[in-house]
Amino acid sequence: MSSQTSVLAKMFLLFFALFGMFANLAAAVPVEELEKRDVYDPPVLYPHAGTIWYKGQRHNVTWDTTNHPVNITNKFGRIMLRKGLIPTPLILEENFDILLGRIEVTVPWVTPGDDYSLVLYGDSGNFSPMFTINE
Ligand SMILES: *[C@@H]1O[C@H](CO)[C@@H](O)[C@H](O)[C@H]1NC(C)=O
Ligand SMILES: *[C@@H]1O[C@H](CO)[C@@H](O)[C@H](O)[C@H]1NC(C)=O
């Protein structure tokens, strides 16, 4: 094999390796949808689109608890922050009763942005619409 063919071969390998990586990333996206089946993931009512929070403020996050199943696998809730499509490690509150429908949280000190959302976890995660956090 001439050195030129070998370089070409390497480029092809690299291309397919990258292609495979992106194919995996793309395949990973629908998992969110799958996880939602047959589990309790109450819809977040507040914050909603257009909500503006300021760091350090206290707010009641609210969610709809109507139509909850009789037996909930995990009745403890957890609220996490997400920026864009990226989850952050910030837990705003946890170990509360998922059937409360409301929990007070403190707005964390984060980079201002209009693409924050909350993820309410019970059995699975449910996302709020994107809202704004300002300084
Ligand atoms: C959250 O809701 C409770 C109960 O209605 C209320 O007492 C509390 O003041 C609320 N907190 C905020 C920050 O609005
Ligand atoms: C809920 O759990 C109880 C106790 O395990 C059981 O007796 C009941 O049938 C369950 N109800 C439903 C709707 O699954």
- Quick one: how many beta strands? 9
Strand-residue fraction? 35-45%
Summed up, the domain count is 2
Question: How many strands, which pairing sense, and closed or not: the largest β-sheet?
Answer: 6 strands, mixed
* Helix-strand makeup class: alpha+beta
Helix percent reads 10-25%
Please, could you describe this protein's structure?
- By secondary structure, the protein is of the alpha+beta class.
- It folds into 2 domains: 33 residues; 91 residues, Immunoglobulin-like.
- The chain is 23% helix and 39% strand.
- The protein is built from 2 helices and 9 strands; from the N terminus they run ααβββββββββ.
- The strands form 2 sheets. Strands 2, 4, 5, 7, 8 and 9 form a 6-stranded mixed beta sheet that branches. Strands 1-3-6 form a 3-stranded antiparallel beta sheet, with no helix packed on it.
- The N and C termini lie far apart (61 Å).
- About 11% of the residues have low confidence.
- The structure holds 2-acetamido-2-deoxy-beta-D-glucopyranose (2 copies).
- One 2-acetamido-2-deoxy-beta-D-glucopyranose binds next to loops.
- Keywords: Signal.
Topology of helices and strands:
Elements lengths: L2 H26 L2 H5 L8 E3 L5 E3 L3 E6 L12 E8 L2 E12 L4 E5 L6 E9 L3 E3 L3 E4 L1
Bound molecules: 2-acetamido-2-deoxy-beta-D-glucopyranose (2 copies).
Keywords: Signal
Based on the model shown, name its key terms.
alpha+beta, six-stranded mixed beta sheet, 23% helix, extended
Structure at a glance:
This protein has 135 residues and is an alpha+beta fold. It is 23% helix and 39% strand.
